[in-house]
Amino acid sequence: MKTRITEIFGIKYPIVQGGLAYLAYAELAAAVSNAGGLGQITAATLRTPLKLRNEIRKVRELTDKPFGVNFAIAKHDGQYMELLEVAIEEKVPAISITGANPQPVFERIKGENIRTLVLVSGVRQAQKAEQLGADAIMAVGQEGGGHLGRDDIGTMVLIPRVTDSVSIPVLASGGIGDGRGLLAAFALGAEGIEMGTRFIATQECVYANEKYKEAILKGKESDTVVIKRSLGSPGRVLKTEYTQNIIEREHEGATYEDLQDKISGKANCKYIYDGNEAEGFGWAGQVIGLIDNIPTVQELFDEMILTVKKGLGRIDNIMGERTYK
Predict the structure, then answer these.
(1) Neighbours of 129 (CB within 10 A)
(2) How confident is the model at residue 73 (pLDDT cuts 50, 70, 90)?
(3) Nearest CA among 149, 154, 157, 152 for reference residue 124
(4) In sequence order, what are the beta bridge partners of 73?
(5) CA distances from 55 to 62, 108, 129, 240 (A)
(6) Is 47 left (phi over 0), alpha (psi -120 to 50) or beta?
(7) Could you read off the pLDDT of 302-320 as tens digits, one per residue?
(8) What is the pLDDT of the chain when averaged over all its residues?
(9) 57: Cβ–Cβ under 8 A, 6 or more apart, which residues?
(10) Would you say 145 and 283 are in contact if contact means Cβ atoms under 8 Å apart?
(11) What domains appear along the chain, each with residue ranges and CATH number?
């Protein structure tokens, strides 16, 4: 495949693996990159410069293909800057930025040979990212897992809105887990996709507990809910008694301080690492309704590309002629 995404990032297929807090380590990142996409490790999970440096070097031991480092930045949190220094020193090919205003990151990496991706959930954020100098944008619709935009805009509407508003390439995210989603993204004007939840249900996502993966396999598209909406940072998770309780407490007026322990990274790890659904939660998008196996990353890519080719053939048959060059 040839899009601006593949050309900018030096990859075979325009498929990017999401940051996946506490799960995006070298094994998964390298597998995605080796399969032709852009794998990522997440800096926030690693926490210290030494651990990040070691993980970057581990990725390089497992692949000679381009990869990225995700920076999930938060307001008033400058700790990520020392992790960014490591990424610069290690000359990582790409970084992605999610969370708060990415301007400090762009100011620091100016002049460095690092490609950049910024996650957005709306037009204004996309335009701001372009102004700052982003190489590409990842636009996530409300179907996605993890943290989302506040406006509940679905991927089908969001992607054309964003692609019409910027000149840099856009990756579609949210509700995408197979070749049909990739083909749809192209039709909507995107030049590739970002996937998160789908990569959890792969063999190389070695840190995800089997109970977490099994819940993704068995879950329907209606088996996710959005927590933290009342706190201004909505995020989609698996529907369990634990997450339902969080929502109930939000409806009762619970503050961030009241819920801090229940929505913390520690609580997230209790479920995704240990399978303890009584004391933790797992991020997941509505795409769980489309996931029914746990392949290797290479098998997933092979299936997706084959599905895209079949889909193009189906479109040709519908139109009665070859409709693309």
Answers:
(1) 26
(2) confident
(3) 149
(4) 99
(5) 11, 22, 27, 33
(6) left
(7) 999 999 999 999 998 888 8
(8) 95
(9) 90
(10) yes
(11) 4-207 (3.20.20.70), 210-287 (no CATH)
Q: What are phi and psi of 266, to 5 degrees?
A: -65, -40
According to the 3-state scheme, what is the secondary structure of the chain? CCCHHHHHHCCCCCEEECCCCCCCCHHHHHHHHHCCCEEEEEHHHHCCHHHHHHHHHHHHHHCCCCEEEEEEECCCCCCHHHHHHHHHHCCCCEEEEEECCCHHHHHHHCCCCCEEEEEECCHHHHHHHHHHCCCEEEEECCCCCEECCCCCCCHHHHHHHHHHHCCCCEEEECCCCCHHHHHHHHHCCCCCEEECHHHHCCCCCCCCCHHHHHHHHHCCCCCEEEECHHHCCCEEEECCHHHHHHHHHHHCCCCHHHHCCCCCHHHHHHHHCCCCCCCCCCECCHHHHHCCCCCCHHHHHHHHHHHHHHHHHHHHHHHCCCCCC
Whether the model clears a pTM of 0.90, i.e. scores above it, the answer is yes
For residues 212 and 276, give the distance between their C-alpha atoms in angstroms, rounded to a whole number: 9
Specify the amino acid at residue 290: L
pLDDT in tens, 207-238: 999 999 999 999 999 999 999 999 999 999 99
Which residues lie across from 41 on neighbouring strands?
69
Specify the residue for token string 């909505």: 234
Contact 55, 26 (CB under 8 A): yes
| 43 close to 69: Cβ distance less than 8 angstroms | yes
Distance separating alpha carbons of residues 286 and 310, to the nearest angstrom: 24
Nearest to 33 by CA among 94, 101, 105: 94
Question: In sequence order, what are the beta bridge partners of 98?
Answer: 72
